[in-house]
Amino acid sequence: MDDLGDTAFPEPGDVADPATLLLRLLDFYRATAVRKVGSLRADQVRRSWVPTAWTPLELLSHLAHMEQRWIVWGFLGEEVPDPWGDETDDRWHVPQDVSVDDVVALLRATGDRTRQVLADHPLTETGAVGGRFAADPPTLASIGFHVLQEYARHVGHLDIATELAGGHTGE
User: DSSP labels for 59-123?
Assistant: First the structure.
């Protein structure tokens, strides 16, 4: 479940290239989120542990869809079957027939696309018009660092939920 790329946290000074650093941090946070959800029992991943009512599986699904929305639909301008598939009635939702493995597979596939995009495009390149952006799309750097802050913030949220559930905490 953890083969989502290099998961060693890049220490300051370890990497000089911003694209490489961004990629390594995204890989680290993706793998950390999967490890945290994977440390919970099946009945714990679909239960809310916080007052805002999201579940660990819903948060993991949100991360997969969020990254896909920004990188594939946003930067690349490609169609995505259901870019808002992590939401129902303005809240995160994972249908009962969608398993943890299904969500991890989407996260893994999206991470593979992100790695390819970061290998093939400079951070200064502007995203495509169409898809998510009708006009004035941001640069890959702006998109990439937005995705990174989403991961960092939500992995922190997930740390609280998994601690309350008795699962894996910390990095």
Answer: HHHHHHHHHHIIIIIIIS----S-TTTTEETTEE---TT--HHHHHHHHHHHHHHHHHHHHHS-T
